[in-house]
Design brief:
The chain has 14 helices and 14 strands. A five-stranded mixed β-sheet has the order 10-11-12-13-14, with helices on one face. The chain has a four-stranded mixed β-sheet with strand order 1-8-9-7. Strands 2-4-3 form a three-stranded antiparallel β-sheet. Strand 3 and strand 4 form a beta hairpin. About 40% of the residues are buried.
């Protein structure tokens, strides 16, 4: 089939529409909107960083006004979503469960052979959960032989229970305290859920459709990311077949010299109008996870600097990208001081773009909503690179 040629503006519209960022409340409001969002994205990444509200809640709140974290727990308790580790830990629609089975098999195939003591420990944990019901890691003996070298240095029982989880012998729910609660799949999976393992071709095509539905336009390496734990997966082969069949379109963007790009046919003639709303995004939002996409499609060079040594940080420890329409307009390094109920913005760095009064008003509104979402009453901005814009924002958040 012939290649679809898009302007950069058209490409950004498609990407933002697919990611649910083309207007506020694109999925509606309330718990059902959260479910629709997860079904659209296919995966909402979980992250433990608590400088501001955790990434999974943040990503949802950016798209669902008035979002309450307990809605996510309710959807999981109702068996409509589940947590699993594909390429990262995240929430997925329960109707996609069967497509997690090849990833579970991938964990088994990729790990080193287990020792007999490791097998015995895993069996002991399974027996305990079967007999006593859902357990947390802390419910098992502290079997560490030497002092911990850091948070990544897990004790044997933690390693064993995570193996069981990734291999599908245990599943996970979470309480309000965010701690994992491990249970048997039979106690979590709905009775009518399909647990038939997909063929390699089915799995590859599911991954392709899912990633293009979420990303709008994507490179092969992004499409294949969720399948990377499955050895010898058929994503690249099936992608080319789907292009030949017309189920996927090959795309080129004017002025962008890059590897081949792909999208679903539904976007070929779709009319998309952006609302110009302002979104304060998580660093782990689906729009931001692949940093090269931000450079290629939005001319935005971004890195979450909590992973950068302090002397080398440019914008702050946990700088949040701020999007208006199809343009990233700022980075907001913020921290929720929960006991004091203060959202402290250590650095509100504006990009080199001219902003209208209306956009600044929307940014002030977004900051107020973000503070409320983080259970903060007061907002303090300590630094900015644009005094004029800062003055307008401070007036708007009062």
């Amino acid at each position: 089939m012939s290649q679809v040629i898009l302007t950069p503006e058209q490409a950004r519209k498609i990407i933002l529409h697919a990611g649910g960022l083309w207007k506020k409340a694109a999925f509606g409001k309330g718990p059902e909107a959260v479910y629709k969002l997860i079904c659209q994205l296919g995966f909402v990444q979980i992250d433990a960083n608590y400088v501001v509200e955790r990434a999974h809640h943040h990503s949802i709140a950016a798209r669902v006004p008035g979002y309450k974290p307990e809605w996510l727990q309710e959807l999981q308790a109702d068996g409509r979503i589940f947590e699993f580790f594909t390429a990262d830990a995240g929430y997925l629609p329960m109707h996609d469960y069967r497509f997690s089975l090849p990833v579970q098999q991938g964990f088994v195939a990729n790990r080193k052979p287990l020792t007999q003591p490791e097998i015995n420990l895993m069996n002991k944990i399974l027996d305990t959960v079967t007999r006593d019901g859902p357990r947390m890691v802390k419910d098992f003996d502290n079997d560490r032989q030497v002092a911990s070298a850091g948070w990544w240095d897990w004790r044997p029982s933690k390693i064993a229970i995570e193996r069981l989880y990734k291999e599908g012998k245990l599943m996970v729910t979470r309480g309000k305290d965010f701690f994992k609660l491990y249970d048997l799949p039979i106690n979590i999976l709905p009775d009518d859920i399909d647990t038939t393992p997909p063929t390699p071709e089915e799995f590859a095509r599911h991954v392709i459709r899912r990633e293009l539905q979420c990303l709008g336009i994507a490179y092969v390496k992004e499409i294949a990311w969720r399948a990377r734990l499955v050895k010898n997966n058929l994503v690249k082969q099936e992608l080319q077949k789907m292009v030949q069949e017309g189920e996927v379109l090959s795309v080129a963007i004017e002025g962008l010299k890059a590897a081949p790009l792909y999208m679903l046919p539904g976007y070929k003639n779709k009319k998309i109008t952006l609302s110009e709303d302002v979104f304060i995004l998580s660093p782990f939002d689906t729009l931001n996870v692949f940093r090269h996409r931000l450079r290629d499609f939005f001319h935005f060079d971004y890195q979450v600097e909590c992973f950068v040594p302090a002397p080398k940080r440019k914008y702050g420890y946990f700088s949040l990208p701020v999007l208006a329409g199809d343009t990233f307009i700022a980075r907001m390094d913020a921290k929720a001081e929960r006991k004091q109920q203060v959202l402290t913005i250590h650095n509100l760095h504006f990009e080199a773009v001219k902003l209208s009064e209306a956009t600044l008003d929307k940014l002030a509104e977004a900051i107020r909503a973000f503070a409320q979402f983080n259970q903060c009453i007061d907002i303090v901005i300590t630094k900015s690179n644009n005094r004029q814009y800062l003055s307008t924002i401070r007036k708007g958040i009062q």
